[in-house]
Amino acid sequence: MTDTLTIRRPDDWHLHLRDGAMMRAVLPESARHFARAIIMPNLVPPVVTGDDAAAYRDRIRAALPEGMAFEPLMTLYLTEETDPEDVAQAAASGLVKAVKLYPAGATTNSASGVTDFDKVRGVLERMAEIGLPLCVHGEVTDPEVDIFDREAVFIDRVLDPIRRATPGLRVVMEHITTEQGTDYVRSQADMGGTITAHHLVINRNHILVGGIRPHYYCLPVAKREEHRRALVAAATSGDAHFFLGTDSAPHVDAAKETACGCAGCFTAPNAISVLAEVFEAAGRLETLEAFASRNGPAFYGLPPNDETVTLAKGGPVDSPARIDTGDGPVTVFDPGMALHWHVTL
Ligand SMILES: NC(=O)N[C@@H](CC(=O)O)C(=O)O
Ligand SMILES: [Zn+2]
Ligand SMILES: [Zn+2]
Asked: Which portions of this protein are annotated as coiled-coil regions (predicted)?
């Protein structure tokens, strides 16, 4: 029986740190386990220009507790007004590692996102030229489309046409939740797909059966069990297209436990333990390093981390039910099963 596993230090290729008091509370939860993270730009107002990203990066660095190391990899929020030159400069200076596409209205804080894709063509062409990846929240917003179909429909209606119109554009389909997502990503060159820890564990029954569980509500919403299995197969395959993006997305409990609760699961504290449990159950612990520590940097053209972390199997991991923030308590993702893999440094 394997009871320890040493892997390169993981990175998180999709993370929400928020700002202010919330950021100060959640940042150490990510920095404890992850060396680097792609930082989502959906603040209010969003991180749109290179100057916005530099200021946000400085606030993150300033909030990092003494003695912790963590490198924020910044992104820009694509709007119909985004200037291709500003994007190119922010990429050339090394500040920005990706641009994020939110279809307007698709998810939390996406009101400034894109409605008319022709208006962002110039930016996407420039990104293809310079090799800067586009990260996409892959859901259509058409009210006629069922929420459980919005990812699959996005591939056909939006993602594939954008990629055909912009040859060479490197795209990450973020937080994939469907077999259609895994199949599409796997079959394409110049593409990566991030998968969260929580989508490897929950299906839509977990959200809805026996009472509504607001802390399992995130977007894209968890789908049927067959899709969860497709995600586990993709994540544990070792295939370089797939890598970890936790999409750890903290909201205070008051904003989740209400008549119109917002979307997002806060997984930073236990994501690595959850992954180890899932990979072990699949008999694929040996591919955890590829998924959490190697495939992401390879896609982004960065070296893997030199340091390692060791996971040790033992008694149940004692992750807190919630953490306190200056804005109020934030519930930590409950995987609904005991976790046994402790991260030791
Ligand atoms: N995943 C979510 O449900 N929520 C994210 C936004 C996002 O990644 O879509 C958030 O910012 O809260
Ligand atoms: Zn999203
Ligand atoms: Zn997200």
From this structure: none
Would you say residue 212 has pLDDT above 70?
yes
Report the pLDDT averaged over residues 253-276.
98
Beta-bridged to residue 243, according to DSSP, are: 194
Give yes or no: 324 in active site. Answer: no
The rounded distance, in Å, linking the Cα atoms of 219 and 32 is 25
**Rounded to whole angstroms, how far apart are CA atoms 14 and 86?**
22
For 215, the token pair is 């802390």
- Confidence class of residue 2 from pLDDT cuts 50, 70 and 90? low
Give the distance (Å) from ligand 3 centre to CA of residue 40: 7
pLDDT in tens, 65-95: 999 999 999 999 999 999 999 999 999 999 9
Tally of CB atoms within 10 A around 180? 20
Q: Which atom of ligand 1 is nearest to the CA of 249?
A: 12
Q: Each residue of 31-73: pLDDT tens digit? A: 999 999 999 999 999 999 999 999 999 999 999 999 999 999 9
- Cβ of residue 267 lying under 6 Å from some atom of ligand 1: no
ipTM exceeding 0.95? yes
The set of residues, in sequence order, having a beta carbon less than 8 Å from that of 201 and lying 6+ positions away, is: 228, 274, 278, 335, 336, 337
Of 269, 280, 193, nearest to 230 (Cα)? Answer: 193
Angle, vertex CA 166, rays to CA 163 and CA 172, nearest 5: 45
Please give the model's pTM, rounded to 2 decimal places: 0.98
Whether residue 41 contacts residue 77, with contact meaning beta carbons closer than 8 Å, is answered with: yes
Q: Which of 23, 42, 135 for mutating ligand 1's site (highest number of atoms within 8 Å of CB)? A: 42
The DSSP annotation for 155-183 comes to IIIIIHHHHHHSTT--EEE-S--SHHHHH
- Residues with beta carbon < 5 A to ion ligand 2? 107, 137
What number of helices (H) and strands (E) belong to the chain?
13, 13
- Annotated binding residue at 42? yes
